[in-house]
Amino acid sequence: MSQRLPDKLKAPEVDLLSPMLNREGDTWTADFRGLKLRTALQPIYSISHKRIVGYEALIRAFDPDNAAVLPLHLFQLPASDAENLLLDRLCRYLHIRNYSGIQDQLNWLFLNVSPRVVTAGSQADSFFGQVLEKTGLPPHRIVMEIVEQPTDDAERLRETVAYYKKLGCLTAIDDFGAGHSNFERIWNLSPDIVKLDRKLLTRATDDHKARQILNGIVSLLHQSGCLVLLEGVETRDQAMIAIDAGVDFVQGFYFEKPSTDLGQLGQGPADLDQLLQEYKTRNQVTLDPTRQLVDFFSGYFEQATGKLRDGLSMHQACVELLNHPAVSRCYLVDDRGVQMDDTVVSDTATRGLDPRFKPLESTTSADWYRQQYLRQALAQPESLHVTAPYLCVTGAYMCVTLSLGFYQQGKLQVLCCDILASPTPATL
């Protein structure tokens, strides 16, 4: 741009940017500071639907010799807030121009917008409404991505996001899980979609605990009413992690790279059928050991509950259970979920007690009703239940719990047994 822009764009009309766009065959390009801008689209896949449900629009810049210019360098060119705002709107205008001419009349277009640009613009981005009206692209096919980073005007950001929603667009938080991420923004903005930062996936690839945290974040976001997209999927193992985490959508080089060839969209080898079949096979393997626990210990539980009915003490009734090297402890709970008497602990568990967690060891009169294994046993007496591995609050170690509801002198009670769990794929 050769002309000097005012400090603020008082009238961000579409007509101000239209002369900067050029038609090249079936696509559009834009001119900015001597560079040619093009639209690149990267597919976004729904795991459950096993197909493309949207595309993220990315800008690609080229110098007069047609050499690629890094996007980072492009966005360093604006010399003022006004020019920064203009470049942002020029990119969005270009992307919508290109996408509105594509045969696909179903899927979403994901558009990036920085909080700094949002808060620098007008409260009601009338420009964006003009672009949609001019191009004929329905607002319900647009997903506005807000980059997850600090902003000086949270209230303006909330108002602008509300405007996009009122317009009929979907909204998304981008890069959630990066340095400035927090759930407060999720609660304040109530986005439709949350895009997880690829660093979460990178850590989960090498660290089992990070994988559990990723799964927990996805679960929390779902409970918050958000769909979840995991970006940066580059390998088959990462694709399997994404499937196991329960995310709704995936995006990354493993499925398809961004392309400026808009006529060949969706031609990448997305083998979601094979991935899901592999997941089912792996999942069946991981469930088998849990089923084996029930089969293996059912006899022990029948023997223990029989002795309890005969009036023997917990230690006498559970001696066979406690002698098993994997068993940590046994305890008895009444029909209100309150523990009866002291926990009986195996010799193996006693030797392995961590003194740092000594305040948690005594569980006399503890209330376990919140635990699912307890409620299941109360709801389905005489049936042995088993949990997935979880962190036991009595000693901060990983375990699975077996629970069996039974009647003693007409009163429903639950015998519970904790079994040490090693956090490995074979155990989990």
Which range does the strand content fall in?
A: 25-35%
Instruction: Please give the order of strands in the largest beta sheet.
Output: 3-4-6-7-8-9-10-11
Stretches where pLDDT falls below 50 for ≥5 residues? Answer: 1-12, 423-428
Main sheet properties:
8 strands, mixed, barrel
Using only C-alpha atoms, the radius of gyration works out to 29 Å
CATH class of the largest domain: Alpha Beta
CATH architecture grouping of the largest domain: Alpha-Beta Barrel
How many domain regions?
2
**Averaged pLDDT:** 86
- Helix percent band: 25-40%
GO molecular function: cyclic-guanylate-specific phosphodiesterase activity
Protein name: EAL domain, c-di-GMP-specific phosphodiesterase class I (Or its enzymatically inactive variant)
Domain EAL: 20-272
Organism: Marinobacter gudaonensis
